[in-house]
Amino acid sequence: MEKATPAGAGETADDLEVRDAVSAPDAEGRPRRVTRRFPLFTRDTARPEGGGRAAPGDAPAPARQWPMLAVLSLVGVGLLVTALDAFRIGTMLIGVALLSGAVLRFVLPGVGMLAVRSRFTDIATYGVLGLAIVLLALMVQPNPWLEIPFLKDTLHFTVDT
After folding, report:
1. pTM (2 d.p.)
2. d(CA 15, CA 155)
3. CB atoms within 10 A of CB 129
4. Cα dist. 19→13, 24, 39, 108, 143 in Å?
């Protein structure tokens, strides 16, 4: 058993023992047992994996968050193109922005505020939503660029005329 060095109020370093191999100090610096069981009440949140700055701390704020700004800029361009009456191209840009967010989240170790959840969850969420938006933009009527044959048959089974 190893002795803990930080002492709490009225305790000496000899009074505290850490019995487990894994222990962490509490708010007062005393070692406490860390279990794998989730706490009953959550008191704080953990920073997502990859949630550190994308550039050094001495860089200006926009440079530290460049992955998020790149994705948001592409979404903004897509919304602008959609507002200028090019619906298909604009929505495809929005989907491509989400897909690029998934790629950035996969490739870069630190993506700043683009990291919201765990790496896997972020990649899956950005990827699925981006792919769905791109596919819907390709299938939009009139004159779809992508036709999926079984969707027309599915529509005949669901709608009675």
Report:
1. 0.65
2. 74
3. 16
4. 14, 12, 21, 39, 70
